[in-house]
Amino acid sequence: MLKIDIPGRRDINLEGVVFDLNGTLAVDGKPLATDLELLEDLAGKLRVYVLTADTFGTAAEVFKDLSVTLQRLSGREVAQEKKKFIDSLGGWSHAAVGNGYNDHLMLHSAVLGVCVLGGEGAHPLTLTRADLVVPSTRAALELFLYPRRLTAGLRH
């Protein structure tokens, strides 16, 4: 568990982080090797989940050697599936990271929502549901590896 003390706001007791795959952790189905290393580092501190409809069919191979839980989605009502998934974990103890339209409900349900701008951009609705917006996957991963960055960005 990661306790994040945020002046002017209630503390966050984080148990895990839920990531969208395409557009967030990967562009065109391919994550950067350096981001995968950071993801594995994060999995040593918190539970890490990766949600995907696996548009490119690469998820199983990409994550086979990592300590993350890969959750496949049906691809029909993806926004609702992502929200239900984070609610089932306990949104009050899990952060969510995404960029697309289908991530906005998940970010809103999480105790902490992070929107990644990245190479595929970000949907405006998802931007408005996020607690923080970051320029890259690496920046998102580092927020949780160096939690004082979260404190700095969220303090009132």
Describe the structure.
This protein has a domain at 11-101 and 109-117: HAD superfamily/HAD-like (Rossmann fold, 3-Layer(aba) Sandwich). Helix 1 links the parallel strand 3 (16-20) and strand 4. The longest helix is centred in the middle third of the chain and has 12 residues, at 78-89. It has 156 residues and is of the alpha/beta class. The strands form two sheets. It has a six-stranded parallel sheet, with helices on both faces. The protein has seven helices and eight strands.
User: Can you count the helices?
Assistant: 7
User: β content, as a range?
Assistant: 15-25%
Enumerate the strands of the largest sheet in spatial order, edge to edge or round the barrel.
5-4-3-6-7-8
By secondary-structure content and strand pairing, the structural class works out as: alpha/beta
Task: Provide the residue-averaged pLDDT.
Answer: 92
Question: Any guess at the CATH architecture of the domain at 11-101 and 109-117?
Answer: 3-Layer(aba) Sandwich
**CATH fold annotation of the domain at 11-101 and 109-117:** Rossmann fold
**Helix proportion range:** 25-40%
Major pleated sheet: 6 strands, parallel
* Rg, Cα atoms, Å: 14 Å
Q: What is the CATH domain class of the domain at 11-101 and 109-117?
A: Alpha Beta
Give the CATH superfamily of the domain at 11-101 and 109-117: HAD superfamily/HAD-like
So what's the overall shape? globular
Low-confidence stretches: none
Order of H and E elements = EEEHEHEHEHEHEHH
Distance between the termini: 23 Å
Number of strands: 8
